[in-house]
Amino acid sequence: MKRRDFLKASMAGAAVLSMPKTMQAMPAPGDIPADKNSTIKPDAKEEPFHLGMAGFTFRHFDIDQTLDFMQKLNVHYLCIKDFHLPLDSNEEQIAAFKAKLAKANVIGYGVGPIYMKSEAEVDRAFAYAKRVGVNLLVGVPNYELLDYTEKVVKQYDIRLAIHLHGPDMPLYPDATDIWNNVKDRDPRMGMCLDIGHNLRYGSDSLRDLKKYHTRVFDMHMKDVTGNTKANHSVEVGRGVIDFAQYVRIMRKVKYTGSVSLEYEKDMKTPFNGIAESVGYFRGICAATR
Known about the structure:
Blueprint: H1 3-8, E1 50-54, H2 63-73, E2 77-80, H3 91-103, E3 107-116, H4 119-132, E4 136-141, H5 146-156, E5 159-163, H6 175-182, E6 189-194, H7 195-200, H8 205-212, E7 216-221, E8 223-224, E9 233-234, H9 243-252, E10 258-261, H10 271-287
Parallel strand pairs: 1-2, 1-10, 2-3, 3-4, 4-5, 5-6, 6-7, 7-10
Antiparallel strand pairs: 8-9
Helix pairs in contact: 4-5
């Protein structure tokens, strides 16, 4: 299956930047209508998963710019980063933020990643997730905090998806490390499988999705140039990850979470690369049905 064939299956290319912003009223999750004027097809309703965006992708842009671009791409799920909604936000600030998301037809499905180096930071992170009103916290608690974190997970009834960082950090380098640390803990403790960083650590991301899918609560989608620390992120479809197989595995294991693009190339001018990546992924989904 050639890359150009998948690109033909998608409308998300250069024309995406001129798409209208008018959207319909906010529906329930999983039943979001497309902009009637959009040329981009919405995610197929029969897919068990949904396409989203990792907030870190937009680290150089405010929430208004972020939501504007998501509207143009017809992407409706966002994992909220604290530079868009600070951890100390009060109820009024959170309400105003959520109103912006609703107006843009975007659902904030989770928060994070949030790093936790003390019990107080664990408490703060989960209290923040509760105030925001999400049931998924993408987080990175230090290893020695896992016992305490498990207690807080039970207290708040909020799922924790531990984010892996490949060879870039000593904490949770790959999916196997997270699995070994959560497999005997509360079932609400799992992972955010970053398929690019996992591969850069030398691990097989597609195998790990199949092997650990019961604890995969969230995924960061990216493509990379190879399986070593020296390799780097590229547009989805330009690297070494077999996305056709990736989509087939998600369907096979009935993954129902978000597949959130975390685009880390050209982060100050990411829009063309994001549009290409979204279009390629949608083309893969269409071509493998």
